[in-house]
User: Which sequence fits this backbone?
């Protein structure tokens, strides 16, 4: 039933070591609604839990519109006006971020948790220099930094991501796409955060530059001991650099496991389908199989399992009851009725 | 890592302005008017406030070596009146437009950035101000208050902000939705900081360019009010000169020299402001900056690349 895909196991982060590292972010049963006056609320994220350990890179995978970005913005409490976090807890170093005041949250933002947005061009202010915008993050949190050390820090950050310090007085339009993304990474690291959320950092970049950016991110993570949440569509990237993977479907967690289990022993039909839809270099003759249908509309969800209408192994119960998450191993969860027997 | 670093600050500003010949032209026109207003006591051949002995021949006397632009209905030198008149016109123009821009900018940014009820209230107020015809309201307001220079400035200022408010609001709305504002929130920056560091730099160029255009409107308004006889009769402005010339028979006397100079002055300043305003808009918006792109013919800099028609090129 499960198609085995082999990946080389990596020696960068021994799994055991990772499991003993302290948990710094614990997201528990978070649900996010988008409210509007005329329509029923759209349940963008429902009952979602995951945790992030020190030095861990978590890959967040799923189709467009499945709630990945919403979940990430909820962590920073930056949802658009219609977004509401209706339940759950987001513990950061055992403090619930949802209990904080706006001022308290402002203090956490960027200093402890920073974010690299998708589309660097839009995330940079076109009328201010790159150096000035990197400086901004430091000044907001450490207003008494001297000019001298600010300048040194900016140079250091730019060098760290491979941009010459002599380019700090240039404007975003004078940078190439890859450089802008590097500058965004430099910006994200400005205040030495514990967590960096990388929301599709490589969209709209060509494959070579994508590889460079991801390698940079991975290197910096090891060098600085960062925890990274990497939001992406690219399962190849996830296999390459992530330690753990959370597969989302229609706002819920479909499967959550370490990267080896996801690739070698996927248990949720959606994960299995997703892997089949992705090319595997070791079996070049295999046909790619697309998943028929579309992701569900978030304000008109099927009553049972959200994946039921597209699932090849659907049976009666799937259309009636929402599946619970089943614990399949010390670090492997999946939400599917097929797993209830085992 | 050789790279061209952009010139910024005032050096860059002048370098850019020099490229924009219309803007430079407008600036020169405005500066000439300001210079004339400042140096009026030295430039004007006569003191317009000094009493003159009048004979019938001195009234609407045509241009002559003593009076280059002739005399007006009170036998005063038109050239001197014209030079001194620029002072009032420019003062009213500048101060009234600053009031307008300040009110309009503040209302536009607040409405755009805060949204919701605040926006609704402020924009309805703007709409109401917009549909009330300016001129009759100005006439009423000036008539109710004393027609002094200060009141005129104030009335023109508080009637002229609606266009700016709508312009600034729409720009604010579009800037507010940009990703870098979300990034600034993610950085942990407060609302005031975001307005100051992210919104203003993108709204300000528009406001500055708009200021220069509003100055020309304010000068026109002042001239209109003066022409209608609603200004302080003791202050001398271009509109006042037109009013006196028009109501005191310059037309029937054929004294074109009493009408043309103030009219010319108004057109000069308004045109100068408009040209300069458009020039500023192009410079202050860095996204319109194109100097890093080679243009047209210059783009191909290879020496051997030009071919003349009919030329036979040998490829070796």
Assistant:
């Amino acid at each position: 039933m499960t198609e085995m895909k082999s990946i080389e196991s990596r020696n960068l982060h021994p799994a055991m070591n990772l499991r003993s590292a302290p948990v710094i972010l614990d997201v528990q049963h978070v649900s996010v609604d988008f409210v509007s006056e005329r329509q029923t609320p759209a349940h963008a994220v429902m009952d979602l839990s995951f945790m992030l350990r020190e030095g861990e890179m978590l890959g967040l995978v799923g189709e467009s519109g499945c709630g990945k970005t919403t979940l990430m913005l909820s962590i920073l409490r930056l949802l658009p006006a219609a977004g509401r976090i209706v339940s759950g807890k987001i513990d950061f170093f055992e403090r619930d971020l949802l209990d904080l005041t706006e001022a308290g949250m402002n203090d956490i933002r960027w200093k402890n948790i920073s974010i690299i947005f998708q589309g660097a061009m839009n995330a940079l202010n076109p009328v201010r220099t790159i150096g000035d915008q990197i400086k901004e993050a430091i000044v907001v949190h450490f207003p008494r930094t001297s000019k001298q050390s600010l300048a040194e820090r900016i140079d250091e950050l730019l060098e760290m991501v491979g941009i010459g310090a002599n380019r700090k007085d240039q404007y975003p339009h004078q940078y190439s796409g890859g450089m802008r993304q590097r500058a965004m990474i430099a910006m994200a690291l400005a205040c030495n955060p514990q967590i960096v959320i990388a929301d599709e950092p490589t969209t709209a970049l060509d494959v070579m530059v994508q590889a460079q950016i991801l390698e940079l991110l991975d290197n910096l993570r090891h060098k600085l001991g960062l925890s990274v949440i990497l939001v992406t569509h690219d399962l190849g990237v996830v296999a390459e650099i992530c330690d753990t993977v959370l597969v989302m479907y229609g706002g819920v967690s479909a499967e959550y496991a370490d990267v080896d289990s996801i690739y070698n022993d996927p248990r949720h039909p959606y994960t299995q389908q997703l892997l089949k839809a992705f090319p595997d270099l070791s079996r070049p003759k295999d046909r790619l199989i697309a998943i028929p249908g579309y992701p569900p509309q978030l304000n008109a969800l099927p009553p049972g399992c959200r994946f039921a209408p597209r699932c090849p192994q659907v049976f009666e119960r799937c259309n009636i009851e929402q599946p619970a998450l089943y614990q399949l191993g010390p670090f492997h969860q999946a939400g599917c009725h097929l797993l209830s027997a085992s | 890592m050789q790279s061209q670093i952009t010139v910024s600050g005032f050096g860059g500003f002048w370098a850019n302005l020099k490229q924009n010949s219309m803007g430079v032209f407008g600036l020169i026109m405005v500066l000439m008017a300001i210079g004339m207003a400042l140096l009026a006591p030295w430039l004007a051949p006569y003191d317009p406030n000094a009493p003159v002995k009048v004979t019938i021949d001195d009234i609407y006397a045509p241009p002559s070596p003593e009076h280059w632009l002739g005399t007006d209905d009170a036998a005063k030198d038109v050239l001197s009146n014209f030079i001194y008149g620029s002072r009032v016109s420019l003062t009213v123009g500048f101060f009234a437009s600053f009031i307008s821009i300040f009110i309009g900018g503040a209302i536009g940014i607040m409405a755009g950035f805060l949204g919701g009820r605040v926006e609704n209230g402020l924009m309805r107020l703007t709409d109401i101000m917009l549909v009330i015809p300016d001129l009759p309201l100005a006439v009423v307001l000036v008539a109710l208050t004393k027609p002094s220079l200060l009141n005129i400035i104030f009335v023109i200022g508080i009637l002229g902000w609606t266009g700016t408010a709508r312009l600034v609001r729409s720009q604010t709305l579009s800037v507010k939705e940009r990703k870098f504002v979300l990034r600034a929130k993610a950085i942990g920056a407060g609302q005031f900081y975001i307005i100051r560091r992210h919104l203003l730099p993108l709204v300000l160029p528009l406001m500055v360019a708009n200021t220069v255009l509003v100055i020309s409107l304010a000068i026109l308004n002042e001239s209109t009010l003066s022409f209608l006889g609603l200004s302080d009769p003791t202050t001398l402005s271009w509109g006042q000169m037109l009013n006196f010339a028009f109501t005191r028979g310059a037309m029937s006397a054929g004294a074109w020299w009493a009408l043309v100079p103030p009219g010319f002055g108004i057109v000069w300043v308004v045109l100068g402001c408009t040209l300069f305003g458009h020039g500023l808009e192009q410079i202050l918006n860095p996204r319109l900056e194109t100097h890093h792109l080679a243009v047209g013919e210059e783009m191909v800099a290879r020496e051997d690349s030009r071919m003349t028609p009919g030329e036979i090129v040998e490829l070796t």
